[in-house]
Every structure is written in structure tokens, then in C-alpha cells.
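Researcher: Next entry in the queue.
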Amino acid sequence: MKLFDLLEGITPQVPPTLNPEVKGLCFDSRLVERGSCFVAQVGVHSDGHDYISTAVERGAVAVVCQRLPEQTDAKVAYVVVDNSDIALGVMADNYYGHPSRQLRLIGITGTNGKTTTVTLLHRLFRQQGLHAGLISTIVNKVDDAELPSTHTTPDALHLNQLLRQMVDAGCEYAFMEVSSHALVQNRVAGLTFAGGIFSNITRDHLDFHKTFANYIAAKKSFFDQLPADAFALTNADDRNGMLMVQNTRAKVYTYSLERMADFRCRMLDDTFVGLQLELNGRETYSRLVGRFNAYNLTAIYGAAVLCGMDEEELLRQLSTLSAAEGRFQYISGKGITAIVDYAHTPDALENVLTTINSIRRQSQMLYTVVGCGGDRDKGKRPEMAKIACTLSDRLVLTSDNPRTESPDAILDDMEAGLTDQQRGTVLRITDRRSAIKTAVMMAREGDIILVAGKGHEKYQDIMGVKHHFDDVEELEKLLNECVNS
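Model: Structure for this entry, 485 residues:
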């Protein structure tokens, strides 16, 4: 593709004087090959502008940047733009032939519920025989073919590569998680969304956004960018739900459990085996559990209707859907019910524990094992410990993904949220495997164990090394091995 064609939709500060043939796009100088166009991005940890000379030495024929290097090469086309991140998104969209325009791309943003919503939407449409793609925290899929997922929202190049694969495979729909990081970093720039869903917003990622106002603004920017022919489906029960769609050009729809809305849900029953719901006046059953999942299912119902799915068939199909991996996932053994959940924010943890408490019998003890991730928002640590202690019979604080922080320092931060009396009842076991084993050994027949924070993850991140660790695997092994008196 010629450089000028690659730059369609971009107004450079300094336009290029050369129009070379571009054989590939790249933002990592180590991956540049002869004929590439290198895009210099200003990252969190490094600045791509420092590697422009390396990219040119490796054969880049064009460089897109926010400022020209001190030395330029007369054989290389230099393009100066306002924002390299946005430019990369637009160029990737051009390079891969505008794949997001060739299917219906539905994005969801919010603090909790994103993975469950996109995963179940994908399953729902596949069960209907429709070709559909999935871009999620757990896995990316082209129809049923799985591709590994490393970020909630991939970078702009990988996003467009994925979407092109989906289009080439005949996909009519794609369902995608849109993270606040991705929005701030313009990873979805250049994409055309047919619809957007807002789940909810509570404290998270303040290590990155610094303030809750910035976090809200990041989420809102997704709806601000939706085109006029898209839909915006928002949670009317969330205090910021209508704020999200305040300035959108898209057609706004609402969903709710508490007030009048376009898509209204009423919870009829909630047990450990599922939910009985009334959606827009029609009853349906779901294998999912808890009020938070009633919201997820209502969003799924609304989005599917807005995508044209038959409502009667939709209600039938909803009853067949099971939870996403690591989301209120059950493991049973020796009469004990263990639940693994990704809950890693105060709100998510409170939702899961409140759900368990609303369902369990008075005689059933609830043991919670939870930690907090390192190098992330420290302010939520005492909140999570306080919630877990208040809503559990016994609490075991343990390590999550400590990353480059001391696990004991993280637990100190968590314990700061507890009273002296509460600290006396809480167990502190840094080793996660030992912490889970302790909870299993304490539990008796009929009791419930919640292991929260990591969900689907199959590793522990310790000092930059990912060690294999799977909460579900650990629980299955222990519940099969341990004999409780």
C-alpha cells in the first residue's frame, strides 16, 4: 500500500514529500523489516521517538511521529502528526481494509461484567448459527477457533488483524471488551462500532487514571465516539449510567432492574443453581447466579434484541448459557461448595459475597480467600479487606499477583482496613496455595469457600515471572484429596 493511501483520514502537521510503497506497519523498532512504516508512540515506560534511528537502520521507508528526529534520512518519508496513537489506529484500519466496517462490532465498557457479557453474547450468536468473533480478557475467538489473549483490549494493529481474520472467516458480528486503558491510549481509534454497552463503574485502575473523574471520563469517551447509526445501551441503575451517553450521537437505550427502561428485568428467584427472571414481561431461567449476573443478562438480552435477534428464541437460548470461566465458577467435593471468581475490585467482591450470603443457609459457614494485585491501585486494598471480613465468617488474606511489590507489604495495606478486633479473626497466609489449602481444611460438609481475585488466570506474576497457578486446579485437587471430619 502506498503511504498516502495509508494516511487516509489523517491530517499531518508536516506532510510527507515521499510516497513509498509500505509493506507493513510497526510500532516496535525490533520488529521493523525492510519496507515497513514505523510509528513512534510515546509509551508509559518508553518513547518510540528514541528508536526512530534504529527503525530506519532496519529498513523503515516511512516514519510517523509527533516530533522529527534531529537527524533525518533523505530516503525516508517522515510524517509529523498530533497523536501517534490515533494515527496508528487509523492507519491500521486503512492497512487491513476497514474490517470493523464489514461486520457489526459491539463493544462493552465498564468496571465489572465485561468478560461475562461479551463471552455470553458470542456463545448466544454462535448457538444461533451466526458467524461471530470475540475479543476478551480470557480468549479471542474467530467463530470457535481460539487465539490467545494477553490484554483486555489488544493494540490497534492486533485489533485490526483480528478483525480482518474475522471478516475473512465470514463473521457477521464481533463482541469486544473495551478497557479504560485502551480508550486513554487510543487503541480503538479508527474502529467503527455498531453498538456500545455500559455495565457499571466503580473504583478501579486509579494507579493509572489517578482520579475517579479521569476514570469516568475514559469510559465516557467510548460513547462520545460512537457514530450516529450505532446504539448505546446503558445501565440506568448506575449513578453514572446516563452520564455516559450524555453526548453520544448514537441512539440511546436503557436497561434496569430498578426502574422503567427499554429492557427491564425483574428477579423472581436466585439460588445456587440459577436465576429465575422476567425480561420485558417474559419469564426465563438462567444457570447464572446473583443480582450482578441479572444485570449482565439484561444487557445481553438488550444487545441481542438491538442486533435483530428474535425475542422468543433469545429467551430460550439464554437458559442454556453457562458462566464465563472464572466467573462464579463452581467446584464441589466432600460436601463443600467452592466458588472461584475474578472479583478484584471492592464492588465486584461485595457483589459476589452479597450473592452468596443471600442464598446460603444459616448453618453454612462462608470462608473467603482473597488478596490484591501489586503495582496497582493501593487505595482499594483496605476496602477489599474490610468488605471480605464483614461479609465472611472467616477470612484468609493471601497473595494475588504481587508483581514487583512485596506480598507482605500488600497484605499490610489490606489489614489497614480492619479494626483491631477484626485483625484477631483474620488469617494471613502469604503463599496462595497454602491459603487455599487452609480454607479447605477448615471447612466442613455443607460449607462454602470463595477464592477471589484471579478467576480465569492460570499464573501468578511474581517479580516479572509468571508461575503456573490455577485456583480451580488447586481447589479440585484439594477437594478430591482432603478428608474432612
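Model: The radius of gyration is 24 Å.
Researcher: Noted, moving on.
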